[in-house]
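Hey all, quick one. A colleague (J.T.) asked me to put the zinc ion job into the tracker so the inputs and the structure tokens live in one place instead of scattered across chat threads. No bug as far as I know, just bookkeeping. Sequence used:
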Amino acid sequence: MSGPARLGSWWTAADGAELDVLLYELVRGVSEHRERCARCAEGFPPCPHVRRAIEAVLEWRAARALLSRAEWLRAERHRLEAVA
Ligand SMILES: [Zn+2]
């Protein structure tokens, strides 16, 4: 999966691959959890445990996007300095 366009050109294939792993684990974990959770078995919205797991993935994605953006900007500056 490639990153959504809004994540910018700094979102790398490695970032996308790591997000794929996290999403796979999230979906797998939630599937197992739903069998044991009365609230999640009712449907939507999920219980606080599942919401927290989803938030953790979203927080990871936001932090990784910022980190990759900083790395991309640093590399871009080096490219520009090499040309000048
Ligand atoms: Zn639950």
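Adding what we noticed when we looked at it: Residues 1-5 have pLDDT under 50 and may be disordered. The chain has three helices and no strands.
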